[in-house]
Amino acid sequence: MRAIFLCLLVAPAWAQPFPVQRCVNLDQALEAPREGDWGYRIERGDIAWIADQGFNTIRLPVRFNAHWDGALSPQILARVDEVISWAAAEDLSVILDLHHFEALMRDPPGQAEKFAAIWTELATHYAGYDDRLIFELLNEPSEALATDEAMRLFEAVLPTIRASNPDRWVIIEGGDWASVEALADLHQPDARTALSFHYYVPWEFTHQMAPWMDAPPPPGRWGDKDDREILRRDMALAGSYDAPVLLGEFGVTTPTDPSQRARWTKAVREEADAHGIGWCHWGLAGNFAILDKTTQTWVPRMKDALISGH
User: Fold this and answer.
1) Distance between CA atoms of 182 and 103, rounded to whole angstroms?
2) 12 in a domain, yes or no?
3) CA-wise closest residue to 161 among 122, 115, 113
4) Which structural domain, as residue segments, surrounds residue 111?
5) How many whole angstroms separate alpha carbon 61 and alpha carbon 52?
6) What are the residues whose beta carbons fall under 8 Å from the beta carbon of 43, sequence distance 6 or more?
7) Does residue 8 carry a pLDDT above 60?
């Protein structure tokens, strides 16, 4: 299986640009406590559909800490290997993301050793894979894990990763759930590190009628002059850093009016494109879906929102 991902590079690895351009998250699958708990299991046909629509990357959120008992379970590693192999067959890059490590957010000192051990094992396991595999060290630092503490965790584990993966792209993000403002307190530990942020602004719009919330925001609208000025300001800020920057998540809940949902999504995508920021929509088939699994076709209006102009 690993042989699929091995390749000869035609230029020095450190000279390669950050590869993520158009990406979609495989949400509500492997970041659930167990795959299928949240209603979605990754299928090979979904990976083929993503490639056919013009995306070049998938982001694979995995709750590795739920599969750790002194070592990662062989079952979770085999399942992740399988999804990566499906992506490789479609020539898609994969962002492998440590997701929902909630204990680390509450108690960074107490969980730091486990965080490092997980990445030590993953780095060893994937040492032979080519540059289409990207490591994202931690999703959305929050609660007690502020940006400075997260940076200490990243810088502590990165030398271990580099010992076996010297040229692999690594993604880091800052506190406050990877806010755009947190980018200011991040820095590149080395030239093969990209910075990431997530964008759900305004939250009351992007999370309206969220089905998993007890009291979700009511229906709302977006797109007036002030809304667009905030968006332009935030994307200009994200694009101003002298480092590769990824918009790792953005999206609007599926109960939202389709025209409103598409308007916000397209505006965010176009502003990211205008500032040279690769992006990764949240998500594929869950509560922020772009794929209708009953028909295996686009959710109405979302193809134009994400793909038009590419």
Assistant:
1) 21
2) no
3) 122
4) 19-307
5) 21
6) none
7) no
Dig out the tokens for 198 from the structure: 């997530």
CA distance 181 to 236: 12
Both tokens of residue 225? 């002059």
**Of 179, 180, 160, the residue nearest 170 (C-alpha):** 160
* Band of pLDDT at residue 12, cut at 50, 70 and 90: very low
Read off the pLDDT band of 15 (50, 70, 90): very low
98 contacts 136 by C-beta, under 8 angstroms: yes
pTM above 0.85, yes or no: yes
Q: Tokens for 165, please give them.
A: 């993966």
For the chain, the three-class secondary structure string (H helix, E strand, C coil) is CHHHHCCCCCCCHHHCCCCCCEEEECCCCCCCCCCCCCCCCCCHHHHHHHHHCCCCEEEEEECHHHHECCCECHHHHHHHHHHHHHHHHCCCEEEEEECCCHHHHHCHHHHHHHHHHHHHHHHHHCCCCCCCEEEECCCCCCCCCCHHHHHHHHHHHHHHHHHHCCCCCEEEECHHHHCCHHHHHCCCCCCCEEEEEEECCCHHHHCCCCCCCCCCCCCCCCCCHHHHHHHHHHHHHHCCCCCCEEEEEECCCCCCCHHHHHHHHHHHHHHHHHCCCEEEECCCCCCCCCEECCCCEECCCHHHHHHCCC
Could you tell me the CATH number of the domain that includes residue 213?
3.20.20.80
The two tokens of residue 129 are 């894979």
Residue 60 in domain:
yes
State yes or no: cis peptide before 300, omega within 30 of 0.
Answer: no
Tell whether the model's pLDDT for residue 7 goes beyond 70.
no
In a domain, 130, yes or no: yes
The count of structural domains within the chain is 1
Q: Does residue 1 sit within a domain?
A: no
Q: What is the spatial distance between Cα 82 and Cα 80, in angstroms, rounded to a whole number?
A: 5
Q: How far apart are CA 264 and CA 257, in angstroms?
A: 11
| Residue 61 CB neighbours (<10 A) | 25
